[in-house]
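Thread: Modeling a multi-component assembly for a lab meeting

Hi all, long-time lurker, first post. My supervisor asked me to bring a structural picture of a complex we are working on to next week's group meeting, and I have zero experience with this. I have the sequence lines for every component (622 residues in total). Could someone generate the structure of the whole assembly? Inputs are pasted exactly as I received them:
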Amino acid sequence: MLGDSSRRGVVLSTTSTVVVLAVLVGIFLLAPGSAQVRHTFFNPADMWQSFVGDPKAGYYSVGAALWLNIRMFVAAEILILIFALIVAVIRQSTGPVLLPLRVAATVYVDVARGVPLILIIFALGYGLPALQLTVISDQSAAVYGVAALVLSYSAYVAEVYRAGINSVHRSQVAAARSLGLSQGASMRYVILPQAIRNIIPPLLNDFISLQKDTAQVGLLGAIEANKAAEIYSSTVFNYSSYVVAAILFLALTIPLARFTDHLIRRDQARRLAGAGQLWAERARFPFPVRGERKRCGSRGCASRSARTRCSAGWTWTWPRTRSSA
Amino acid sequence: MRQMTVAAMAAIAVLAASAGLAGCASESSSSSAASGTSSSAAASASAASCSNSAIQSQLYAKGMLTVATDKPVYPPWFVNNKPTNGQGYESAVAYAVAAQLGFSKSQVTWAYEPFNSSYAPGPKKFDFDINEISYSAARAQAVTFSDSYYDVQQALVALKNSPIVTKHSPADLKTYVFGDQVGTTSLQFINSQIQPSQTPKVFETLNDVKQALQTKQIAALVTDTPTAEFITTEIPGSVVVAQFPSTGEHYGLLFAKGNQLVTCVNKALATLKSNGTLAKLTAQYLKDFTSVPTIQP
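Re: Modeling a multi-component assembly
Sure thing. I ran the full set together rather than chain by chain. Output:
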């Protein structure tokens, strides 16, 4: 089944993995302060105690506190997807009447991306209650935290959306408009469906980052997983609780990362439905095929994205998009 | 695929082996360390010489007593955010201990040590840390504490016109949202003594707790009585509602685990207690706090 060379490869890769791991583990275990470090960061008893918690001893369950992170994350994610889309569409709009909105959206994106999240959290978490308004001023810390996350992340996600919208070839808009669709309808039915498919991987990347940043809401006094870990650590003087929080966050983010990979693979397969043959050849010869290169160059590359596609060896999409224009 | 599986299995095998090794290593090292410290601690206690020259070998920096605390520091523990001025209860206690050990004022240096890293493993950058750190048995597994230099009572700070100022029977207290600073023993006190129905809020710094009180995110903040008194001078319209009876909580100086200097510092503290110095410093810096009424949690 396996050829000689591939069997040799297996042996070599296994050996090198084992040796590297053994050396790293050996350095860690033989270091003079190893026992103390292991006790402080990886003590099973402390990890378990911080996981289950004991409020009367002065600390909360890190595991239970994670539930707050999950709720904040899900709420924030849904709101971000909606809010950021609105911002992106406003920024992409062309009507002269919408200029004030466009300016506002641009200023918002610039400011929200530039200001540290921690300041937005403090501003909303301490500022809004201080205003003493009726509904706005008596929400829980988690609500202000989610609002801050939505404000901050929507700016990033709006830009991701915009990149996605720009990645759809202009000929698509032209085609849609020539079919009689209004500008709004062509955005809704032609551009966005293609754009969103393109941006799912970067979107999920932002959401993995969002999951971890829910920990910053702990600054407002809400007891989420990281805060619970900090409370345990400072109560008992042992950092193992942070390792527990890290493991729990990993348990959330790794499945999402794998899901992203899965989506990318599925999307590639779907796009290549008509060009699977060419793709297979590409995989074997990962450099541009001459004829295609020439075709692209001789017609000139209309847009920057088209140029990028040419140089990245994606010219197989070129004839299709050209023909649709 | 096959290749990956083999590599993964090998990695798991190595990890399992190392875990086994780790188990053995930690057992042997911890038991030897334990026996080592107990015997040497006994030896130094019996040697019982706490003269300035006798303790030189135990110091972080030769000829100097290095005392650590956080930044910023607050009254009444420190004055004007300057540990070096000898004013404020903790600064005065540190210099009094130093004098007992034969250090002049100029032989005391101050190091900056944030609370969260004061209990990190590894060598410490100070001889002892004085930062309103409460003793507990669990904490004493990671660091060594001196005997008490201040016995702590917890107190409630609230805004003057809030309901908790008048309604604070044990049953009423359970209905409020409390706040405290992370790492303080106040959280333990709230949950074990007051037992409120709503989860308390835990903030990063004392300033954040104060902010939360001012913006009515919490009904009251819980902290030690001297700090509570100080907060009322900072937040306009706030008042110390009451203090709670002592639970035996006390502040101790924090040493690296197994630091033998603690024996001599404890002796110094005992002298300061018996000759009335601690009582005098308490009267000088913390005297307002005897007037606060005591209520049951």
